Amino acid sequence: MSAKINPLANPKGANKVCELCEEPAYIQCTKCFVTFYCGREHQDDDWIAIHQKVCQLLIPVRTPVPYYTLEAEREQHCTQILERQKLLMEISQMVAEKKLFEKRHKESLPAALLSLRSAMDIYGTSGVQLVPAYLLLAEANIGLGNLSPAEQYLTWADWTVVRTPDCSRTVRNKLHRCMGRLFIVKGNLEEALFHLANDIYYASEEYGQDSIVTCGGYFLMADVFFKQGKMDIVNSLYTEVANTWHSHLSKLLEKHIENTITPEESFDEAQQAEADQMLRSMLDVPDGCPEQQPDQSAALAHSLGMLWLLDKDPAKALEFGKRALLYSQLVPDCSLTEPIQRLLQLAEEDLNAANKGWPELPHYPSAHTENQKST
Ligand SMILES: [Zn+2]
Ligand SMILES: [Zn+2]
Question: Which GO terms describe its molecular function (predicted)?
């Protein structure tokens, strides 16, 4: 669905510019009245990419501060606006990340742009807080094959990090990962390995050697070794990544069954998309890779099953669970058979409950909050 649009009354005299290309604007969104476009195409692109999620949130942020006689009232208003700007930045950043993991690079661009604008509204036009948005814009452009703007954003990000001695390891880790991606695309594999080694160093310092953040760097490194034809290293890196995800998701599923997952531990949409993309691409072995061992395929399919069960899609969980069971049957005394059967049972219970419209399963407390019906 697209928002309705209205021609602006006096486009020539107005200094409104398009949300996406900053050319003069001729139409506006008639749901918020604070967002302008050069034409229908950019309005539609923005709506699909991010605007539908933030349209109403933009109204207070982009409306001039009203006149307050009391200083306290004015301060309170400004605090509220700041909170909304931060929310806007978080939402647009998360949406851009999610679309990047889904390889929808064109759609990630408007979200990444909005995250940069929101960061600038909050922190000014320089500062390390802008770096995550620069990196999203760089990555979207890398995905679209626009290497020149990607390099420009990366230069700004790098320059900002260099000038910030106390810059966090999280930001440094993201910067090197993005640099690694750029050099992979440019075919400069040695330079890519240098940046990915740095990425892994900062990630393991911050999150630990066996964290899911760190293994994102190993996954990209495997891509480089694949291009160099070093399949032994590719296999060992894939095994490392597969094991990390499997043990992480197994722990998370246990906590989910006990209903003890904390908000920090639960996945957001971007992390969900990243995990799905990474696990699937390892499960569907790329051409030229040696045939995968069935125990690793079982672990990958089991991980995907757990991922989808946690994301409240029992049908997909069942599909991957069945695939995992088939692989596990090829391995003598496979230690995964029992947990896989448990996953299948949970997925079937969830699916039955969803079909019958049951409110909640007693042993499985937080799985059905969206489909609850009062009895
Ligand atoms: Zn435009
Ligand atoms: Zn709008």
Answer: zinc ion binding
